[in-house]
Amino acid sequence: MPKITKIEVQKKNKERFNLYLDGEFEMGIDMDTYVHFNLKKDQIVDAADMEKIQSYDQYRQAVNIAIQFLSYRKRTDHEVIQHLQKKEISESVIASVIDYCHDQRLIDHEDYANSLKNTMIQTTDKGSGIFKQKLKDAGVEQTLIDAYAEKYEFEQPMEDIIKVANKILRQKKGPEIKRKEKLTQSLMQKGFSFEIIKAVMDEMDFSQPEEELDELLQQELEKVYNKYSRKFSGRKLINKTIEALMRKGYKYDKIKVKLEESGIVDGTEKIEGNE
């Protein structure tokens, strides 16, 4: 039967050893494998022994890969499994590694969810919807997702969300109804719930100087009128212009006044600003 003739520390990795059988290099093993099997020189090892040693060392290598992967930040089962699969590690070994990680508290989905919650609230302008999606993508259980999304909404300061909303609103110009629609859409895209958005909207000031709105209407009128004048004329041109401006949120009476101010009577005129 084969006999261990030498066990030496590897030159490039002091945590691993070279195992020699009958004077020939057999395989590399890590320190845990070495200790686990209490390997020593002149020890007799049969085929069954070597199969156990090889299997255990593969497991230990996978554990070390997982530990290194987990050293950068918190991970979930799903993330660790994907990482190990890319290393072409067998499913049975991966399952054992995941069990080990849970036993050693290296993977803890509740801790993961809580940590992500705190980080996102402190460093991002996103709502609970984005938080929930991140947890789902990471493979966290739905019960934990629901529980921590509720905590997320409770702990995220309303004043911070209002600051985000005001920043967005400053970039949105036009009639109040459209500004409300655009703000609502932007907040939804950031993952805020309908309840949160409604509460924020109630706190917002959508008022604008009348001169600013008047100037915006004039600009939109010129743009829309000149666009439709390529296809339509007369009353149809005026109607198309009015419809387009109303879709943009401008009120009918304001549009009529602006058309009159621009000297448009039958839809054949040119607007002064574009002559």
Describe this structure in words.
The chain is mostly helical. The protein folds into 4 domains: 4-103, Winged helix-like DNA-binding domain superfamily/Winged helix DNA-binding domain (Arc Repressor Mutant, subunit A), CATH 1.10.10.10; 109-155, Arc Repressor Mutant, subunit A; 158-203, Arc Repressor Mutant, subunit A (Orthogonal Bundle), CATH 1.10.10; 210-274. 63% of the residues lie in helices and 7% in strands. The chain is built from 13 helices and 3 strands, in the order βββααααααααααααα. The protein has helices at 31-36, 47-72, 77-86, 91-103, 109-123, 128-137, 142-155, 158-170, 176-189, 194-203, 210-228, 234-247, 252-261, and strands at 4-9, 16-21, 24-30. It has a 3-stranded antiparallel sheet with strand order 1-2-3. Helix 2 (47-72) crosses helix 4 (91-103) and helix 11 crosses helix 12 (234-247). The longest helix has 26 residues, at 47-72. It is elongated, with a radius of gyration of 34 Å. The protein starts with a strand and ends in a 14-residue tail after the last helix. The mean pLDDT is 91.
Considering the protein shown, what is the CATH homologous superfamily of the largest domain?
Answer: Winged helix-like DNA-binding domain superfamily/Winged helix DNA-binding domain
Parts with pLDDT < 50 across at least 5 consecutive residues: none
Strand percentage, roughly? 5-15%
Number of strands: 3
- Specify the CATH architecture of the largest domain: Orthogonal Bundle
How would you classify the helix and strand content by structural class?
A: mainly alpha
Order of helices and strands: EEEHHHHHHHHHHHHH
The CATH C-level name of the largest domain is Mainly Alpha
Overall body shape = elongated
The pLDDT mean sits at 91
State the strand order across the main sheet.
1-2-3
Summarize the amount of helix as a percent range: 55-70%
- CATH topology name of the largest domain, in short, is Arc Repressor Mutant, subunit A
The profile of the biggest β sheet is:
3 strands, antiparallel
Number of helices: 13
Number of domains: 4
